[in-house]
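Posting for a labmate who doesn't have an account.
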Amino acid sequence: MNCRLPEYSRDGRPEIVVGTEGGMVRVVDAEGNITSTFKTGGNVTTVTLAARKGDGTMQIVAGADHGHVYGDIG
C-alpha cells in the first residue's frame, strides 16, 4: 500500500490518496469518507500528485505493476 497526504481538493483539509495491491486508487477525506475511486489494470505501486499546466490544480497520478501510468484520477 502506498499513501500520500496531499491538499488535493483545495478545501483546506487534507485527503489521503491510497493505492492498493487490488488495483484501486482511492481518495479519503478528513472524515474517512471515500470521495473518489479509480480501478487500474494492475496492482498500484505508487501514487503522487502533480500540478496541471496552466491552472495549478492538482491531479492524482498512479503507476501499476503492469507498466501503465494513470493520470488525472479523481
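Reply:
Got it, the C-alpha cells are right above this. The two ends are 18 Å apart (CA to CA).
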